[in-house]
Amino acid sequence: MTQEVGRRTGRRPGSSGAREQILAAAKRSFAETGYERTTIRGVARAAGVDPALVHHYFGTKRQLFVDAMELPANPAELIEGLVATGDPEDLGERMIRFMLKVWDDEENRAPLVAIVRTAMSDDHAAIMVREFAKTEILGQIVKAARGDNQELRVTLLASQVFGLLIMRYIIKFEPLASADAETVARAIGPTFQRYLTGPLEVAE
To answer: Is residue 11 part of a domain?
Structure first.
C-alpha cells in the first residue's frame, strides 16, 4: 500500500488553464447576476481558484469585465482620460467625438454591438450592460460634469449614447449612418451637453 505524500487540498493554484476558467466563470456571473453583484471572490469560487489569482490576472473587476466581454479596450479608463482634461462645458461634444472615433473602427465596434444586440433581447444582458455603463462609464462622466440630479442625467445621457449606437451602427438609419463624425458631433453635442450640465426641470 502506498501513501500519497505532500498532497495539497483547497483552491487550485495558477495553471495554464486558470485564466480561461476565470474568464468563463466571470462571463457566467456577469450574465446571470449583473455587474454590480458580481464579485472577484465569487468568480474565484466558481472557477475554483484563489481570489488573489483573479487579481493577478485582471487586477480589478472592471478589467475582468472588459476581458470577459472581449472588449477591445477598457472604456472606463479611456473615459477617465477624457474627463481629466478640458472644460466641462464642452464635454458633450468631446464625448461624441471620442465615441465616434472608437466606434467607427469596425474591429473596435463589433464586440460592443454584439453585447448591445444581446441586451436588447435578453433581460440578464440588459442588466449587465446597464450596470456597467452606469457605474463605470456614464456615471463617471456625469460626476465629472458636476451637475445636479446626477442619476437622472445618467439615464438621459444613456438614452442618447445607446440611441446613437443603435441608429448609426445597428439599424443604420440614413443619413445618420453615413454622416461624417464631425457633423454628428456638432449636431448632437449640444444635447449631450444639456444633459450633462444644462438646467433640468424636475417635476415635484
So the answer is: no
